[in-house]
Amino acid sequence: MTTQTTKTATIQDELAQAQAAYDSALAKLLKACADFNEGSGKQYAELMQRHADLRGKIAAHEAAAEAATLEFKQLLAAANFEKTKAVKEALFKKNDALAIAEELREALADSERTTLSLRASASRAAQTYANAHDAAYGAYARLEAYKALAESEEALTRAMALMTHASEPTGIDRQADDPRAYRMKFIWQRLSAVAMERPEAQQRPEVEALGPLELGAFAGRAFLTPVKVMQLQRAEATATA
Predict the structure, then answer these.
(1) What's this model's pTM, rounded to 2 decimal places?
(2) Is pLDDT at 152 greater than 70 in this prediction?
(3) pLDDT, tens digit, for every residue of 188-223?
(4) From residue 194, how far is each of 94, 136, 187 by CA, in Å?
(5) CA 137 to CA 153: how far, in whole Å?
């Protein structure tokens, strides 16, 4: 009776498949990156910058109004509470600064009321981008593994094959479910131990081809879940009711 064994695919075939998978993942990453950085992510970042600028202007006019109020009170007292030209000018400066600050607050509030839909869209694009970056990194790591195997597979597998015949004098290997695998496992253990000592195992390195994952307002992967979007929509509806 002849025992048939399944022939393992050649390492070159698997390397080619890993290369194709990496190329595909990289293409998806580049698209997701462009969709985020040139689409809704860019629009949301610009809107957040506009809001920050408005808040800065509001703070500046409020500070100006506070200074003008103090000046108005001092001039009014110095004029024995008469409406002199200097007093009227100080009063105008105070009222002008307060009026502008109020207009800016209304503009900011109007803009903030239309932010959620763009924020949700940008969040989805950011999450797609992050997922694509993770997938591309995984494909890159697997490709590197296959490259390493392609270089060392013959020597390693020969050593492992020899070990299947090297039974331990203690006979402990015979107690294993798979004695042959037990005899060669120290090779894997050795490689794993050294791998965990490498700097790449301590901190994930950046891959130049993938670029850094820059999520802007969604740094830390603070994405909006569908439930969170619904909660924010209800809160906005309640606030404007």
Answers:
(1) 0.79
(2) yes
(3) 999 999 999 999 999 999 999 999 999 999 999 999
(4) 71, 25, 11
(5) 23
